[in-house]
Write a structure and sequence with these properties.
The structure is a homodimer of 298-residue chains. Chain A has 298 residues and is α/β, with parallel strands linked by helices. The first copy, chain A, has 11 helices and 13 strands. In chain A, the strands form 2 sheets. Chain A has a 9-stranded mixed sheet with strand order 5-4-1-8-9-10-11-12-13, with helices on both faces. In chain A, strands 3-2-6-7 form a 4-stranded mixed sheet. In chain A, α6 (169-176) packs across α7, α8 (230-243) runs antiparallel to α9 (250-267) and α9 packs across α11. Chain A binds chain B through residues 84-86, 179-183, 186, 200, 203-204, 206, 212-224, 251, 254-255, 258, 292, 294-295, 297-298, and chain B through 84-86, 179-183, 186, 200, 203-204, 206, 212-224, 251, 254-255, 258, 292, 294-295, 297-298.
């Protein structure tokens, strides 16, 4: 089983073509639904009393929500606007609300999880959550600019305690004060993690492990509607794939990254989580195969 | 034999770490030396009376310079400054000089060339040059912002007359007025060319042909000194590889793109053409193999 600890949000997404108000989003949402295509997945997260039942039911269709707490107060809200290229996003508003003093509780049934994905919550909370699991085979963490700027030492400690660090290129640069991504990754590996994945959006990702580098070009998408959540789908899809895999080695890690990247390629084709909700497992498998064929050189 | 028509420049390159004054550069220089590792290569180009003999001798070590004309006047000069990331360049000065009214003459010995690479000269000149070759098996053209802005119709006509269009992402966007690179490529293919290569600098390249897409991640380089000429090395290295290949098909086209991309990964490791001058063929072959191994999934 895979346990994901992360945010559930009501997202307002503004693109040049369309505006969506308070749709179901957040790192835990995107990553757990992505993971659920491969593996049993449970989330630890908090929402407010205003969280629509329909959203709760959507989540329940895909994942175990026994770790989802409904608290007095309002659900975490995010409001962001993309420019015409859909590659730059400006944050208009972030309301932490119930996320602010969330004290996560881990359901007993989750504690047997061997796979843990710490999406982008407070790094100190992430370290605490990790301590509740005794059988960890593989853990992954992600982070965001906010935590790097306000709790850098905790971010580094969290990374030291995780097997895999997945991080955006810009955040890796902010964290390491290096521009070159190979240098960024080397510094992050020195923090004490085993694998580093630098996510580059439409340009794919690069995986680093010891002296191995695995550059992965993105699956090219012609009609991108909304890039929100693509990085979370990558992390969730990858951890979902690995949770359902007997051996964790370079071969399965690479394949997992590819599967996660393909989940990301789907989600951008529609707004919010819409594409994930119409997605079938065989479509994922087909696109993974298509990618393998298209990048095959010989 | 491969014939390359392009510019030879005296480049002033300003990076945060170093400034180089009037070093040997230009699209024809980078691309023809790259091509020479794989194939007999001749250039058609013009320089001024001020062009140093030592630079001429450097070129002669690698390529056939019988199509290199020395004219009254000054050599084409370019002066550009990179920012701290080495990914953005500001043009400080461009002096066309002898390039302005160059009337290219093609040596008879070049006319048997089956492979032609039109680097980024005036598209009308490129079309003219192309007419001198009767046995063309494969032609490639590139272009720059200046020609797209001033001679767009000629650029499109040149592309229609070439088998392969290699173009930077930003220039593809400028030319097609699309942002998405798949859409850009489709529009360029509609101009009448067979293959489109969108070059993305440190993010690699994407090749398009009919309904085939081949995304190629870049070979990751930790110590980049100077990105100047990387795109020209890609085009030249690719055409050099293909000139030395019996069959032109998707397999060899892909391999050629990879070889060109690897040439680009070398050139950025030192200033100007320095890295190319110390490079041995076996280092190229080794890095191509290394890339194939590192990106192999299974």
């Amino acid at each position: 089983m895979l346990t994901i600890f992360g945010s559930i949000a009501l997202d307002t997404i503004r693109t040049p073509a369309s505006i969506l108000y308070e749709v179901l989003g957040g790192a835990a949402t995107f990553s757990s639904i992505s993971a659920s295509f491969f593996s049993e997945t449970g989330i630890i997260a908090v929402v407010g009393r205003d969280f629509p039942d329909s959203y709760h039911n959507t989540l329940k269709k895909y994942i175990n929500t026994n770790g989802l707490i409904k608290k007095k107060g309002k659900t975490f809200r995010y409001d962001g606007e993309y420019d015409i290229t859909l590659s730059k996003r400006k944050t208009l508003k972030t309301e932490l609300n119930v996320l602010r003093d969330f004290n996560p509780k881990i359901p007993d049934e989750y504690k047997k999880s061997e796979f843990i994905y710490l999406a982008n919550n407070d790094p100190d909370q992430n370290i605490q959550v990790l301590r509740n699991f005794d059988n960890i085979k593989l853990s992954m963490c992600d982070t965001i600019e906010y935590w790097i700027s306000t709790k850098k030492l905790s971010v580094i400690k969290m990374m030291k305690n995780s097997n895999i660090v997945a991080i955006n290129d810009e955040e890796a640069r902010l964290l390491t004060k290096e521009y070159n991504l190979v240098k960024c990754a080397k510094k992050i590996i020195e923090f004490g993690t085993d694998y580093v994945i630098i996510k580059k959006g439409e340009h794919g990702a690069i995986l680093f492990h010891e002296d191995i580098i695995y550059p992965l070009a993105a699956f090219p998408i012609e009609n991108i509607k909304d890039p929100t959540g693509a990085g979370d789908c990558l992390g969730g899809g990858m951890m979902g794939y690995l949770s359902n895999t007997k051996n964790i080695n370079m071969k399965t890690i690479k394949k997992g990254l590819l599967c996660g990247s393909i989940l990301g390629s789907f989600v951008v084709e529609d707004y919010g989580i819409s594409k994930l909700l119409s997605l079938q497992k065989n479509q994922i498998i087909d696109r993974v195969k298509k990618y393998e064929n298209m990048t095959q050189e010989l």
